[in-house]
Design a protein that fits this description.
The chain has helices spanning 2-16, 22-33, 38-43, 53-90, 109-123, 137-140, 152-156, 172-181, 222-237, 290-295, 312-320, 333-336; strands at 127-128, 134-136, 159-162, 165-167, 186-195, 207-217, 243-250, 253-262, 279-288, 304-311. By secondary structure, the chain is α+β, with helices and mostly antiparallel strands. The protein folds into 2 domains: 2-90; 109-336, Bira Bifunctional Protein, Domain 2 (BirA Bifunctional Protein, domain 2, 2-Layer Sandwich), CATH 3.30.930.10. A hairpin with a 2-residue loop joins strand 3 (159-162) and strand 4. The mean pLDDT is 87.
């Protein structure tokens, strides 16, 4: 048995001298020191030895095991270092080669103008309010003074999920939720995606964006509405921009008005963009209907307010002279790279 142990040591040393890879080293370790290795097989026969021989053979076996383990570890360190050097030589980087230019992303034209509008209103003390796109019929219509069977519902072309749940047709429901959960003074804008069952063409889409605003406080007047929107128009289109208000009707405001801005292309003299009128309609507005305030738990005798709403796509189209709304949603890089 002593000769067998010395033979194992000799053979293992000889094989370790010719190792060239980590895998070969692992095979040698398993061959001699594994659970079914040669050293283990020899030690299984120690039961047949006498009491005097066992400690001698056991000590020799432990010495050989320790020696081989140390030898294998040393060879492994040499191989790891060698492989690392070879890998570094293969991965040499030529720093003189030109790099690959990565194209930087840009803001979408809708985001460009939306961020500008947000900055304008935030600068006037407004906050941003958000709400769900899948909305209850109550918030989308009834709380806005548009009860069931009201003719205004027909003009909305609503996507109904069921009788009481819709895809919101406007961001006005966010205003209702805000008035329910916050006491005046309130000053918010609610930008977001809205849905209407429109056929897709150059000026219509079933998915588009609106920005609606709401102010509720004591002694708010139509003059505050006009002043706020005039400041907005001048900051968006320039100090030379002029505005005018035309009477209109919305169920949730009384009185109501549409606001036009002087054509930013021709300055009001008449051109293709403004269809020769010199004015471009950009939003609807009005004083919040007392019934809407009452529904939201706000006393219309103590508080008043104004609201307004605009379509983001139409503003962006006029801003950049874009004649087809579909371009905003087609993700054509030739179009988007222009902004």
């Amino acid at each position: 048995m002593k000769e067998q142990l010395n033979s194992i040591r000799f053979n293992a040393e000889k094989e370790l001298e010719n190792i060239s890879s980590i895998q070969e080293l692992e095979n040698v370790r398993i061959k001699y020191l594994g659970k079914k290795g040669e050293l283990t097989s020899v030690l299984r026969g120690m039961g047949a030895l006498s009491a005097e021989e066992r400690p001698v053979i056991g000590q020799l076996a432990n010495e050989i095991r320790g020696y081989l383990e140390e030898k294998i570890d040393n060879v492994k360190q040499v191989l790891v270092k060698k492989e690392k050097q070879e890998k570094l030589q293969q991965e040499v980087i030529d720093v003189t080669m030109p790099g690959k230019r990565r194209s930087l992303g840009k803001k979408h034209p809708l985001s460009i103008v939306l961020d500008e509008i947000k900055d304008i209103f935030i600068g006037m003390g407004f906050e941003i309010a958000e709400g769900p796109e899948v909305e209850l019929d109550y918030y989308n219509f009834e709380a806005l003074n548009i009860p069931k069977n009201h003719p205004a519902r027909d003009t909305q072309d609503t996507f109904y999920i069921n009788e009481n749940i819709v895809l919101r047709t406007q961001t006005s429901p966010v205003q209702i939720r805000t008035m329910e959960n916050k006491k005046p003074p309130i000053r918010v804008i609610s930008p977001g995606r809205v849905y209407r069952s429109d056929a897709v063409d150059a000026t219509h889409s079933p998915v588009f964006h609106q920005i609606e605003g709401l102010v509720v406080d004591k002694n708010v007047t139509m003059g505050d509405l006009k002043g706020t929107l005039e400041v907005f128009a001048k900051r968006l289109y320039g100090e030379d921009a002029k505005v005018r208000f035309r009477p209109h009707h919305f169920p949730f405001t009384e009185p109501s008005a549409e606001m036009d801005v002087s054509c930013f292309v021709c300055g009001g003299s008449g051109c293709r963009v403004c269809k020769g009128e010199g004015w471009i309609e950009i939003l609807g507005s009005g004083m919040v209907h007392p019934k809407v305030l009452k529904i939201c738990g706000i006393d219309p005798e103590e508080y008043s307010g104004f609201a307004f709403g605009m379509g983001l796509e139409r503003i962006v189209m006029r801003r950049f002279d874009i004649d087809d709304l579909r371009l905003f949603f087609e993700n054509d890089m030739r179009f988007l790279k222009q902004f």
